[in-house]
Amino acid sequence: MLCPGCGGEMQRLTLDAVLAATVDIDACSACRAFWFDPFESLHLTAASTLKLFRMIAAAANRQGAPSRELHCPYCSERLVLAHDRQRNVPFQYWRCCREHGRFIGFFDFLKEKNFVVPLTESQIAELRNKAVMIHCSNCGAPIEIAKTSCCSHCGSPLSMLDLPKMAETVEHLQTSARKSEHPPSLVPMHHEPVNLLEWGMQALADWLGLR
Length: 211
Fold this sequence. Notes:
Elements: E1 11-16, E2 22-28, E3 33-36, H1 40-43, H2 46-58, E4 80-86, E5 89-95, E6 102-105, H3 106-112, E7 116-118, H4 121-130, E8 133-135, E9 142-144, E10 159-161, H5 163-173, H6 196-207
Antiparallel strand pairs: 1-2, 2-3, 3-6, 4-5, 5-6, 7-10, 8-9
């Protein structure tokens, strides 16, 4: 399958699904995005989700985002940008109006799976002591956190990867995973703009032995 984002060949992943079935997921590491046929994302087993975690963590530092009009790889119709929410966290994807499937970025996939949470007031206070500016996890715009706790461009609240929840999932599925009694602090001391989702994926890569 050709990627709707860059036009390159997507990697086909055959993963376990519920009820002893399998699903074929298409992934583009250049665009950092997945193509899901209808209901495929809902049918993934926990072990299959872990495999996607590995791919996301390995691609955490790569650049890539759709920069052109996207078209369905099946019918060539223009994909429509859709906005949704998982609890208090907004996420987006591009869907086919003929219901052939949807194209979703790696981080928006994590948001959909409820692995991204809004920051609490105490976490925002800690973040202000350790960083001057960060990038919005939703649109990438810079946020001067000394003045605001939400993105002035898209209005998204500050959010980060739920590291304890992801660590619990990894430890449950990977018998050789190392269990830590003290999770890492919110962010490292940093004076350049950072992205909390990308920082979290780097920590996940450490747990999975990818770095």
